[in-house]
Write a structure and sequence with these properties.
Rossmann fold, 19 strands
Length: about 550
């Protein structure tokens, strides 16, 4: 049975706001919170009711909606620096003035005088389509369509989207519940439900362009789901590694296993710090003149991950494009690295030719390295710079024995089978995509591994075994140092909840292996497997 509240809210949200206002005229200061609670109760209690609201996205652009339609926008907060916007909360005849209701009201209907207490503030933000959101994730969120057509217009403020010239939606978002708006930060992924209008970008300038504006009724910040992991772990993990190897890595299952470990990582804690490592696949050949320029790995990762971007590095791109956000004339311009937490970046170096890096290129490389090393990104403002936290997995493809630009946590030299080398750059339509059930299992497995990463602990028995193993190795080979142990343990585990002499970065490899097996504890067996895995990597190093 469809709720009458749901039907009313979808068909005429403005009328619902007015009716709520009439019920709460004596409590104008708290009224935005009343509206937020009401619409949240109607739409945010379940995915089914949420998806009753038409999506605002590249397939359903602003111009495809009627004025003051109810829409939902799943987007990334790009800029929070705009000044609050004033609005008259109460109009003649006890009518509500917020949520854009007074926007097109004739001057004759404006009150001749008003109480300045009725002037309220709305938080103004700029939000964009989630950069790197893959097609399957967009379709999953949309879950329905309407009669709108794809946008043929250029989005407003294109400099506020991280990826130059990419199709996207940009919207000015107005949140009337200011207390709820205080927690919204740049790169947050938020689902907004609101009333869509079109307004002047700058009300004080007559020539200012019109931009889509979303008057928010309620919103929810994206959180990681609690989906159950696949039941047959061994089969899913092994099948995933084989599929990635065959379709994207020239049959190299060792490289595919390292990739699965990398995709299991996320920021666990910044205090220690325990951060995702970066990964380089070296000896990754350049495409032949007759091959696509984009590696098959791009298509495979796009099918597996909800948020993923390929950045085809070149001297021209490094020297000209922005990688870090920069404020110009009080307007925050975006950059490639202004992406949501949980995004995976594939940086390809095969397009880099001989030439000179200018200052901007050098700064862009430093920005990427800072994300790799510290998971922070610097935002530049006219008289200051601030670093904001990131949580980005970075993978580098290079043709040489190591990256030309970056120092990554791990380097794996690709050993493609001669018969499968041509598969490294095969087009999308030549990739053997698993059936829907299997592909869903792969996605669920990777999501579960990433969740598991922050919970892995080191058993006391394992901790003692590691220390004794290290002492034994030092006796057999005096050249082995503590740095060797740190590097060795990077795959299996980091950040034990209890004290361990080799805590912190020393356990990252063991944690990754345990998480990729959906294990909550690093055992002696996992430690030994991680040693063998690292040994297989080092054997192929040039």
């Amino acid at each position: 049975m469809v709720s009458a509240f749901l039907i009313d809210a979808i068909n005429d949200p403005t009328k619902v706001v007015q009716e709520l206002y009439e019920e709460h005229t004596g409590n104008i200061d708290q009224f935005p919170a009343v509206v937020s609670r009401h619409f949240a109760d109607v739409f945010l209690k379940s995915d089914d009711t949420l998806r009753e609201v038409l999506p605002l996205d590249v397939n359903h652009p602003p111009e495809s909606f009627a004025h003051r339609s109810l829409v939902r926008f799943h987007g990334m907060v790009q800029d929070t620096s705009s000044s609050p916007e004033m609005y008259l909360a109460s109009l003649n005849g006890k009518r509500c003035g917020g949520w854009g209701i007074s926007q097109n009201m004739p001057a004759s209907e404006w009150p001749s005088s008003f109480d300045y207490c009725d002037l309220k503030e709305a938080t103004a933000l700029w939000a964009v389509t989630v950069p790197g959101q893959t097609d399957w994730r967009t379709e999953e969120l949309a879950a329905q369509s309407h009669s709108g057509s794809s946008s043929s217009q250029s989005p407003p403020q294109p400099h506020k989207f991280p990826v130059p010239n990419a199709p996207h939606i940009g919207v000015r978002v107005k949140v009337y519940d200011n207390e709820a708006a205080q927690s919204l930060k740049t790169t947050d992924v938020v689902t907004f439900i609101g009333i869509l209008t079109s307004e002047s970008l700058d009300s004080e300038e007559t020539s200012s362009p019109m931009v889509p504006s979303l008057h928010v009724l309620c919103h929810t910040v994206q959180s990681i789901g609690d989906d159950s992991p696949p039941e047959d772990l061994t089969t899913v993990r092994d099948d995933l590694i084989k599929w990635i190897a065959e379709e994207a890595l020239g049959g190299d299952e060792v490289a595919a296993q390292w990739l699965v470990l990398e995709l299991s990582a996320k920021v666990y804690t910044r205090a220690t710090p325990l951060l995702p490592p970066s990964l380089t696949f070296s000896r990754f050949p350049s495409p032949s003149p007759s091959s696509p320029a984009i590696p098959a790995l791009h298509h495979v990762l796009s099918d597996l991950l909800p948020q993923y971007l390929t950045v085809p590095l070149s001297l021209d791109l490094l020297n000209k494009e922005n990688f870090s956000p920069e404020s110009k004339d009080e307007d925050l311009h975006s950059g490639y690295l202004q992406v949501p937490h949980g995004t995976t970046l594939l940086l390809t170096e095969n397009g880099v030719q001989e030439g000179k890096l200018v200052e901007k290129g050098i700064m862009n490389i430093r920005a990427v390295q800072e994300v790799m090393d510290a998971q922070t990104l610097e935002y530049s403002f006219p008289f200051s710079k601030f670093s904001f936290p990131t949580d980005i997995v970075t993978i580098v493809l290079c043709e040489g024995r190591k990256s030309a630009f970056f120092q990554t946590g791990f380097t794996v030299s690709l050993e493609a089978k001669p018969s499968l080398k041509d598969n490294l750059y095969k087009p999308r339509d030549q990739i053997k995509i698993p059936d829907t059930t299997q592909l869903t299992a792969y996605r669920s497995f990777l999501a579960a591994a990433k969740r598991c990463f922050g919970t892995v602990q080191v058993a006391e028995e394992t901790s003692q075994h590691i220390q004794e193993d290290f002492v034994r190795q030092r006796q057999e080979d005096p050249s082995i140092t503590a740095d060797n142990l740190i590097h060795l343990m990077k795959v299996a585990r980091c950040g034990a909840s209890h004290f361990c002499p080799f805590d912190g970065h020393t356990h990252l490899r063991d944690r990754l292996l345990a998480a990729s097996m959906l294990e909550r504890e690093v055992t002696v067996d996992i430690w030994e497997r991680s040693k063998r895995l690292d040994a297989s990597r080092r054997k192929r190093s040039p």
